[in-house]
What we know:
The complex is a heterodimer of chains A (about 475) and B (about 270).
Chain A: H1 17-25, H2 28-48, H3 52-71, H4 73-86, E1 89-94, H5 97-110, E2 115-118, H6 122-127, H7 129-135, E3 139-142, H8 145-152, H9 169-180, H10 188-205, E4 208-211, E5 215-217, E6 222-227, H11 231-237, E7 241-247, E8 251-252, H12 255-270, E9 277-281, E10 295-301, H13 305-309, H14 325-328, H15 331-336, H16 347-358, H17 375-379, H18 386-397, H19 417-431, H20 433-445, H21 457-460, H22 471-481
Parallel strand pairs in A: 1-10, 2-3, 2-4, 4-7, 5-8, 7-10
Antiparallel strand pairs in A: 5-6, 6-9
Chain B: H1 3-6, E1 32-35, H2 39-44, H3 46-58, E2 62-64, H4 74-79, H5 82-93, E3 102-104, H6 107-120, H7 125-136, E4 138-140, H8 141-148, E5 160-165, H9 168-174, H10 176-185, E6 190-192, H11 208-211, H12 213-229, E7 234-237, H13 240-252, E8 259-261, H14 262-269
Protein name (chain A): L-lactate dehydrogenase complex protein LldF
Organism (chain A): Azotobacter chroococcum
Pfam family, one (chain A): LutB_C
Amino acid sequence: MNSQARIPAVELSSRDLKHNAHNALGDAQLRSNMRKAMDSLMAKRLAAMPDEYEREHLREMGNHVRARALSRLPELLERLEANLTRNGVKVHWAETVDEANAIVLQIAEAHRAKQVIKGKSMVSEEMEMNHFLEGHGIEALESDMGEYIIQLDHEKPTHIIMPAIHKNARQVAHLFHDTLGEPYTEDVDQLIQTGRRVLRQKFFEADIGVSGVNFAVAETGTLLLVENEGNGRMSTTVPPVHIAVTGIEKVVENLRDVVPLLSLLTRSALGQGITTYVNLISGPRQADELDGPQEVHLVLLDNGRSQAFADGELRQTLNCIRCGACMNHCPVYTRIGGQAYGTVYPGPIGKIISPHLMGLENTPDHPSASSLCGACGEVCPVKIPIPSLLRRLREENIKKPDAPNPVMRGQGSKYSPRERLLWKGWRLLNTSPWLYRTFGFFATRLRGLTPGSLGPWTQNHSAPKPAARSLHELAREHLEDK
Amino acid sequence: MSEPFYNAAPNATRVAPPLPEPRQYPAQKPGNAYLFGTCVLDLFFPEAGLDAIRLLEREGIKVHFPQEQSCCGQPAYTSGYTDEAREVARAQLALFAEDWPLVVPSGSCAGMIRHHYAELFKDEPATLRQVQALAARTFELAEFLLHVCKVEFKDQGSQQKVALHTSCSARREMNTHLHGRALLAQLEKIERVEHDHESECCGFGGTFSVRMPDISGAMVADKTRALQESGAAEVVSADCGCLLNINGALEKQHAPLRGQHLASFLWKRTGGAR
Lengths: 482, 274
């Protein structure tokens, strides 16, 4: 490691997934950091859910709770708004990230805010809130340790739960030494103490605290937030104003629904029975209370979620409780890391949600960047059939761009008349026994003529040589002999 | 999801519905069975298909191989060309009309017929019924040998270490890893060795391997390294797509190791003559 790590990473485009992946695959340090981290996370999850019977029942329950919540989403959102309002929380609706940012800015300006401290929030990443606020002269500082590291290095999070998981202690040591002027140390405890010291002061200076939401409970008007560092509680209680931002799909019906989801979330994500902090936020400081913010706002963001909601199959994408288990188990994500995707949400869940948030035209290769091995679907705590949804997105992606009744923005971004013709030829070959037999005959008899170079296949393989005779021939002879 | 539960009262979510029962197998060994050869096996591993026929015949089953069969449709299906996949699937349906088991010596193709054909024909009620009946009698070869034929193999080979690679869609859809392990465990002198990240995908994924050659290449590089470091003298798999991928990569690396189909391995180890 050397000064290389100090060069601010160039933001990678979601349209260049293949190119980004190529570069990431060549980064030995990244490969080794990711493999070790993901192996450890997989082991932790399994250790926390050792009983297969209990695990599978809980996943089934999680799936039902989420599906039921989504089946009455409009009604639950209205109840959530009514109950939050009754609790003194101001609820704002945003269809786009621009609208969401404008709402946050309006609140900030009303309070003449100069500094914002943030707990971890992926929706604020969707909004690029830090960048937006800085453009309006407001400092936004991340207080989650991983997010803080990423912000110092001008990078994007590589994982939705562990944003800096692609870095090892030595890389963080160099970063803190170079950017904060701290004495060089690779001692993880000392590094964390450094971060805490810097951040602690900021909590008291901040005018506004921003956080995400894990579950928004409609029945009670409660915002539930889990975290391990205490920065979430600080962000939501110390500054005079708290703004929570979340996606419209995060609503659940009642507190009882939270119980299985919470148990699934923390165990799937980090192998924890429960997080160090579970915050239940039910409104601003009351007259007889000593602490807490004077104002609490909730910004509910759509940003393409309605598009997924409108289709019965694609709606399952919104089951997600953002545990990250699909990433931890994904052989593609483990190899290329999160930044190569060029999207806020990387990995398997990123590949199925990002096309709704950004349009298929901006994520053209994401549905294809999977061997459909199924590891993600197998561990998903709410049983999202991720491989099936990837396949469905591939189908949307190869439609004619102007085909009627589009269900996705950017439909047909991979439409190719040439490839369509190839598949039509493939169909003809496999639906005409005569043609298939003739093809088999020539492929086997002329196997000596198999070209040595077969495009991308021979990048990793020798050219495959057909056998001398096909099974059709061998089986016919064998069975005739009987 | 069951409709009544979907609209249930809030408290009903306290209890999840029971998990699906494990697959029930016919108590009697059938007299006849179809073999669906699959397209990759047909051209690249035909001996394995023949060995599968021989294994079944040794169990007293008359094997039928309709000559008009081609491909299950999976390559187009997973690429998003659903209409093309449907028509190729349709061309296979009529070939397996008798109520005999359909045995498939490839896990992912068996999974395609068993789990995905219904999705392809969901809007054609008459065909859907036919497809569901076919799915119910579709078996992956190892599964069929183990649970329907209830084979008891007598190992006739010498002491050997073997690594088993199970296709990942097949292990998740058809439990092929469990069946393959159980069959190998019947062979006395075979020691099955684990390899690093054994459950991880080899990187094939049908057209994924040509659409994303960099990522796929990194995956197969890790898989072939793990197999070579496992100390296994033989690599066996019940999925020809994986074998095409793994063997092609091993050949390109000039490595001596090659994978072979489970059917061929079992046939040779149990004294079968060719």
